[in-house]
């Protein structure tokens, strides 16, 4: 067993001498900062904003639909006006065509009348030339004294003394119902037609 050096008390302490106090180093405890609590940010409820947006969208959709419907109505009205204009144009064209056709019929009637007049004039020319011959004049003078308007009531009429049947059968009906009611040229024409068909046989004076 080792001995303590002289002058030292057992236990290693010198008598009467205090052992120096060795302070343990002070270890600073880490500073733990308490978390800073942030005040919650107040947010507006999402539901009312979404509802407002939905209402706005719906209103816009309704407005667009109304505009579209109005455009459709305008287009339909324009189509009706167009169809009405087409019908009016077709009716006007039909009236124009009818007027043209009526005018053509009128012109054709005038032309037919002119041809008939020309034909009648030619026929009257031939009959007048025939009626002016000495033999025809002798018959007229013998039958009626040359009186184209004579009607004695004996059943014979006019300068050539036609009976009713002979007058009508030789074309006199186109001029008058009885010979004495027709013009001298017309009576001469019927007499000429009768002469062409039968010669002088119908007249006793011939």
Number of helical regions: 4
- Helical content stands at 55-70%
Total number of β-strand segments? 0
C-alpha end-to-end distance: 216 Å
What's the main sheet like? none
Unreliable stretches covering 5 or more consecutive residues: none
Q: Which overall shape is indicated by the principal axes computed on the Cα atoms?
A: rod-shaped
Structural class: mainly alpha
What oligomeric state is this?
Answer: single chain
Secondary-structure element sequence?
A: HHHH
Q: What does the radius of gyration come to? A: 71 Å
Short description:
By secondary structure, the chain is an all-alpha fold. It has helices at residues 46-131, 134-144, 164-169, 184-198. Among the domains are: 57-123; 132-198, Lysozyme (Orthogonal Bundle), CATH 1.10.530.10.
Describe this structure in words.
The longest helix has 86 residues, at 46-131. Among the domains are: 57-123; 132-198, Lysozyme, CATH 1.10.530. The chain has 4 helices and no strands. Helix content is 57%, strand content 0%. It is rod-shaped, with a radius of gyration of 71 Å. It starts with 45 loop residues before the first helix and ends in an 8-residue tail after the last helix. With 206 residues, it is an all-alpha fold.
Topology record:
Blueprint: H1 46-131, H2 134-144, H3 164-169, H4 184-198
Helix pairs in contact: 1-4
């Amino acid at each position: 067993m080792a001995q303590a050096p002289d002058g030292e008390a057992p236990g290693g302490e010198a008598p009467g001498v205090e052992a120096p106090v060795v302070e343990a180093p002070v270890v600073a405890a880490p500073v733990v900062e308490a978390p800073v609590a942030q005040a919650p940010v107040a947010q507006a409820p999402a539901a009312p904003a979404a509802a407002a947006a939905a209402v706005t969208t719906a209103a816009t959709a309704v407005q667009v639909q109304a505009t579209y419907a109005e455009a459709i109505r305008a287009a339909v009205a324009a189509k009706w006006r167009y169809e009405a204009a087409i019908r009016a144009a077709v009716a006007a064209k039909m009236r124009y065509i009818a007027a043209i056709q009526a005018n053509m019929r009128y012109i054709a009637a005038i032309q037919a009348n002119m041809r008939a007049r020309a034909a009648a004039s030619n026929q009257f020319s031939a009959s007048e030339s025939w009626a002016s011959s000495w033999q025809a004049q002798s018959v007229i003078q013998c039958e009626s004294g040359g009186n184209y308007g004579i009607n004695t009531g004996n059943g014979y009429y006019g300068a050539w003394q036609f009976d009713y049947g002979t007058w009508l059968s030789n074309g006199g009906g186109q001029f008058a119902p009885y010979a004495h009611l027709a013009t001298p040229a017309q009576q001469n024409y019927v007499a000429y037609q009768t002469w062409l068909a039968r010669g002088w046989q119908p007249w006793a004076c011939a």
